Amino acid sequence: MKKLLCTALAVLATTLVTSCGGSSDDPSAEFKPSMDKNTKCSIKVVGDYGNFEALEAEFDRFNEYYPDVSLSYVKLDDYQNTLGTVLEGNDKPNIFFFYTWMIGNEKYAPAISHMEELSAAALKFNLDCIRPGLLNRDAQGKVFMVPVFSRTYGMLVNNDLFQKEGLSVPTTWSNLLTTCKSFADMGYVNPMMGYSKDSSSCWMNPVAYPMFVADLAKNPDALKKANDLDPAAGEYMRAALTAVGKLVDEKCVNMQECDTIGDNYTKVILRFFEGDVPMMICTGDTVSGTKKRESQSEAFIKAPFNYSFVPIPVTEQGGYFVDTASVEFSVNKQCDNLDMTNEFMRFLISDKELNQMASAKRLVAPTKAMSFDPVYAAFGNVPTERTFCPEVLGVKDPLAVQIRKAAHKVGKGELTVDEAVAMYGQF
Amino acid sequence: MKRIWVILVNVFIMLGILSFVVVYSTVESQAVTQRQIDLFENNTITMERVTENYFDGEQRICDVWSHYINSKDMTIEEATSFVRISHVLPNASAHIIYADTLQGLSTRPRLDAPDKYDVSYERLELLKDVSWIEEEIGKSINVSRAYTNPVNGEQSIAFCNFISLHDTGSGSSKKAILLRILPVSELTLKWAFPRGEFQNAELSIIDVNGDYIIKGHSFKNSSFFEFYRSYNKGDPAAAQALFSKITSSTGSFTMLNSHGEECIVSYTPFNAAGGWTLLNMMQMQYLKINTENWMLIGVVSAGLLMLFVFDMIFMLYFNKRLQTVAKEAESANKAKTDFLSTMSHDIRTPMNAIIGLTTIAEKNIDDKKTVRESLRKVTLASNHLLTLINDILDISKVESGKLNLSPQTFSIVEMVDNLINLSQPMVKDKNIDFRFRTSGMDKEFLYADQLRLNQIYINLLSNAVKYTGPGGSVSVDMKEEPSQKPNCVKLTYIVADTGMGMSPEYMATMYQPFTRQTDSRVNSIQGTGLGLTITKKMVDLMEGTIDCQSELGKGTTFTVILDIPVAEGQPTEMKFEPMDVLLADDEIFMETSAETLESLGLRVERARSGSEALEMIQKRHEDGNDYRIVIMDLKMLDVGGIETIRRIHADVDSHLPVLLISAYDWSDVEKQAKEAGASGFLSKPLFRSTLYGKLNEILGTETKSTEVENDDSDLEGLNILIAEDNEINWEIISTLLDSYGITTERAENGRICVEKMKSAEKGKYLLIFMDIQMPEMNGLEATRAIRALDDPWASSIPIVAMTADAFSENITECLNAGMNGHIAKPIDIKLVIKEIRRIKEESKQ
After folding, report:
1. What's the pLDDT band for B198 if we cut at 50, 70, 90?
2. Given strand B473-482, what is the order of strands in its sheet?
3. If you placed Cys at B544, which of B81, B86, B562, B569 could pair as Cys (CB 3.0 to 4.6 Å)?
4. For an interface test with B, which of A42, A85, A298 has the most B Cβ atoms less than 10 Å from its Cβ?
5. Under an 8 A CB cutoff, do A82 and B125 touch?
6. Given a cut of 50, is residue B70 above it in pLDDT?
7. Which of B581, B654, B586 lies closest to B616 in space, CA to CA?
């Protein structure tokens, strides 16, 4: 059933890709202030983003309606551990980041207890503009968090380099391997690269995770086992882990070189902008930082090139489009100025604003009427059978941790595929 | 200079001034802006000092705690307890964290566990690199960036020191970090610009990487450098240079904020907190730049534009005036040329006649008839020439504004008499029906410039006669009415003729000099074209009005109305004893004559014709009630005046006195009239005074007129001294006077004249004719000298000026010098004789 729903959603999303422009013309999308425009108050959004210019741009737009509302974004140190304290403290935020993977973790229970029910009819939030698969509802169907971005996995491709070398961007697994070989033969040390120092946002996960989840999706029992961290589910990681190992073994990925990348975000981007890496494996979160860093890379400034973010072709049919919620916003029901906070959320939860914010952030919007940035254009071509929403499928966070860590260790050569498969549930 | 150049120069000057104002204003604005920026920077520096002092104060507290803890070899619990009780600020707290484990204790309990004070910085990046904390206490301000307090979740800053704690486990000392923690919210409340001109400014503190230590609301991103790059496109190298400058020096720059607004950002580094920089940002619009300069530019622009437009309008107006003046000058120049040309022609014409006729006379000296005819024509040409010269001189004086009136008492009766006399010859020649009627002429003596008044009347009358063909008629009506002006009478003078008339076109310009109607008939008539001009000027000068009604081919009527002062010494009461008088006249104007007679106390009966008069006289005679006198017009419808007189005296009463009146010169009929028995003659119009005098004379109530016509015997033997330097003039006057039996002596100049008078016996000379312009001593000086002589006879001898200085002011000048009269050259011998007689009569009295 969930698969069917996910498929239907994907069809809907793909259809809407071509009609994204019409959404902003919808009168319902037009925000109409419902409070005194001269209201003076402060709204604070806390999260773990180092900076959030896209949101700050929304603040400015909201100030066009309410010029005296002071909105700010604050990055919390050690977000995962301080969120609960912050919500209980004197300096309570109005809105805070929340992630799907936090659900079910007792550590975040206090945070959940602060959440306002965003689906309450009185609030009149336009939750219908969000793709249902990304909208997390509890057992009663209530919504306590709204995704503002969608995350996906793939690889940044230096199109100019491909063109220069007379190669096409690979669309199948074997094609990927031959392309890498071709680049290697041409002297490219790193046909593919990615962050590898630790498992968080490492290159192995974008390769392994979609494959693992796709395999699980075919077998609901296996998915249950996997969610339950049953070691028996480890076998379903094999194909994915093998693919990771193969990329290393076939010298598509040079691990020594990957280990030189200092962090999983800025350094990954700047390394890609050096211009000698045909393919850089990363998540959409990393892609979101590319636009700004174009001007920070001396190499890119000197020799700019055309690039795009494409699915990693891990099957002979092509790659997967994993449509999963990235950061989500929750409203602290115990905050000051709750009415104005809800007014801001009402303003923000619309096709227009969410699309605009996603575009500024260079991420995929969570709206039904999502509009792909040109960099993401390839994902619009992924067929529905290879598009899925993990949340819709019922994939839980512990499962994701297992595959990520297993893939990292296999890629690093710290475990064999067999060892990793056997260790499922222990990562 | 062409107009376009004037405009260009004006525009150039305007642009120059405007450019100067703009440049000046810009420079001023820049200077003001710079001053504001300097002030803004100074405020930033001040805020940095204030902040640093605040940090320093907080750090000192931390230092004191650290020193104390170190000095007491405290355990972490003891140290925490000590710090806890040392706290003063309610929102402040302290953490003591082991440097190795990043675990420690808080002075305040955890929110989620009120009985727990343990705290971990293990997951925070803050203390992973502690190189920013000086090992030595008190050496620097060791303040952290804003971070999330793991105990209460508040964004806070911490003042830190390394301390040494007693480790109970090992018994040795253990390195730890003391953090004195203050909430950013608390700091932000205190840390704001004082209200004033920079109250919109916002502060931030950044570290050497541009990351915010403390972030103001308008500062976006987590890094100021990122914020700058996001909204300010440009050369990355230049941006990097700017960032280096920001973190190492004091200054300011402008950038765009997230709203695209231009902002001024001033920066200054913290001295004590290494690598930190205080940023102060405010929108440029809040910098109080003096915008009045734009108003100045606007006002100057508007002013210059108005000035320009005004100048242009004035210039156009002035140009138009100049064009008009130029046209007038051109016209005047043309008029001058025309004048000279006309003068040349008009003077040469009579001169030609004079010279030519003189030559003819010389060549035919033996042919008396030819000589007489030539001399007659010479006289006519000379008179015309004289008139022309007088007119020219008059118009010249009028044009130059030097014509002054010289009022004197005169008799309007004499003036009218003179007018009639002057017009008679031509009237007779042309057989014109001439009528001169008066009405209400009560005041005989008036006070005005007789010469000019005469000129007006003569000009109009002579024109009427001149331009009226033979058989036509000319009538003059003179009317006296009360005037609005005090002591004046309104004298209306109407000259109507049945002459050729004038076209409307000519009438529009008829008062301009040298304008004569273009008409072949006119061309055959002598004229200077100045008469009407002078007349108009004279009338204007006398503040009167002149009106003209004319129709081409039908005639012209000029009406002159003048207010003339009445002279003192009017004739005394003129009344007769009541007696019956018959007035025989066929004129409509007879009513006026009858009224005049009645005003003299006479009972008047009227007869319209000679026969009617005869019948009425006959009847009266038969009734034994004769008229006392009959006043009869010379020309009547059926029987003429002379014939009627003859019949009266022959058939009715040979003694009945009859006064013959006529509008014409009666000298031609005098003999006939006398033979018929006319008792006397009187010219029309009938003035009260003349009528009164004449009736008295006829009725024997007064002596006869003293004037003896055509009898010059009274002049014989008179001796006159003539002061004349010009030989010809002397010859003329002496010869002419000699013809009257008057002897003359000549004095060649004024001095000789005076000498002669000094040596003359009493009564030797009747009078002196004195030329004015003479060598050695002029006539005026000579007159004054004579008047100053001791001999009463000599000093009172009548002196009459005989000079070519013929203007009224010359006359006045002569009279003022002591002369008794003035005769203008060329002389009219009749006038000279008249003057001699007048003086002779006066000398008798």
Report:
1. confident
2. B433-439, B473-482, B488-497, B555-565, B545-551
3. B562
4. A85
5. no
6. yes
7. B581
Q: What is the pLDDT of residues B244-299, one digit of tens each?
A: 899 888 999 999 988 888 899 999 988 766 678 999 999 888 876 655 567 777 88
Is A79:A52 a contact under the CB 8 Å cutoff?
no
List the structure tokens of A271. 């390394």
Using the Cβ of A75 and the Cβ atoms of chain B, whether some distance falls under 8 Å is answered with yes
Q: Check CB contact under 8 Å for B150 and A85.
A: yes
Phi-psi region of B529 (alpha: psi -120 to 50; beta: other; left: phi over 0): left
Average pLDDT of the segment spanning B476-488: 89
**Contact criterion met (CB below 8 Å) for A310 and A155:** yes
Q: Kindly list the distances between the CA atom of residue B218 and the CA atoms of A181, A239, B266, B765, in Å, as whole numbers in the listed order.
A: 51, 51, 14, 127
Please tell me the distance from the alpha carbon of residue A242 to that of residue A118, in angstroms, as a whole number: 43
* CA neighbor of B604 nearest in space, from B575, B635, B583: B583
Which of chain A's residues have a Cβ under 8 Å away from the Cβ of B230?
53, 292
* Pick from A27, A9, A61, A47: nearest CA to A367: A9
DSSP per-residue codes, A329-360? EEEBTTSSSHHHHHHHHHHHSSHHHHHHHHHH
In chain A the domains, ranked by start, together with CATH numbers, are 31-144+327-362 (3.40.190.10), 153-323+380-422 (3.40.190.10)
Measured CA to CA, the distance from residue B93 to residue B89 in angstroms comes to 8
Closest-CA residue of chain A to B230: A292
Listed as own residue / partner, the contacts of A288-297 with beta carbons closer than 8 Å and 24 or more positions apart are: A288/A149, A288/A361, A288/A362, A288/A363, A289/A265, A289/A362, A290/A156, A290/A362, A290/A375, A291/A362, A292/A53, A292/B226, A292/B229, A292/B230, A293/A266, A293/A269, A295/B229, A295/B236, A296/A270, A296/B229, A296/B236, A297/A269, A297/A270, A297/A273
For residue A419, the one-letter residue type is E
- Both structure tokens of B671: 């003999």
DSSP strand E in B373-514: where? Answer: 408-411, 433-439, 445-448, 473-482, 488-497
Q: How far is A266 from chain B (nearest CA, A)?
A: 13
| Burial class of residue A250, CB neighbours in 10 A (0-12, 13-18, 19+) | middle
Q: A4 is written with which tokens?
A: 């069917």
Give the per-residue pLDDT at B515.
Answer: 61
B751 Cβ contact list (under 8 Å, min separation 6): B776, B777, B782
Q: Amino acid letter at B501? A: G
B443, amino acid identity = K
Closest approach of B70 to chain A, Cα-based (Å): 30
Give the phi and the psi of residue A258 in degrees, each rounded to 5.
-65, -35
Q: What angle do CA B519, B524, B528 make, to 5 degrees?
A: 85
- The owner of tokens 């809040």 is B286
Question: How far does chain B reach from its first CA to its final CA, in angstroms?
Answer: 77
- Which carries the bigger pLDDT value, residue B256 or residue B185? B256
What are B792-817's pLDDT values in tens digits? 999 999 999 988 877 767 888 888 89
Other C-beta atoms lying within 10 Å of the C-beta of residue B793: 14
